[in-house]
Design goal:
With 71 residues, the chain is of the alpha+beta class. The protein has one domain. The protein has 1 helix and 5 strands, in the order E-E-E-E-E-H. The protein has a 5-stranded antiparallel beta sheet with strand order 1-5-4-3-2. The longest helix has 12 residues.
Length: 71
């Protein structure tokens, strides 16, 4: 995992369908990056983003969809 100090310049961000719409836990990802999957807190768009390897991110998403993780 690496970080991007100011991830606001990345092209397109989308909010996770599992994010809290009440302004709480809002996670955004940016798709289409060959070196990994940038993830940030939508409440801090000029803050850092964590960049996960695509395989690790896919495993995490699979666990969430499969009910293996809970809030």
């Amino acid at each position: 995992m690496t970080t991007i100090p100011d991830a606001s310049a990345l092209a397109a961000w989308r909010k996770s369908s599992h994010s809290d719409n009440g302004g709480g836990g809002c996670v955004e990802v940016s798709d289409g990056w060959p070196s990994g999957v940038p993830v940030r807190d939508s409440k801090v768009p000029h803050g850092p983003a964590l960049v996960f390897r695509a395989t690790d991110w896919a495993a995490f998403v699979g666990a969430v969809r499969g009910g293996g993780l809970s809030a």
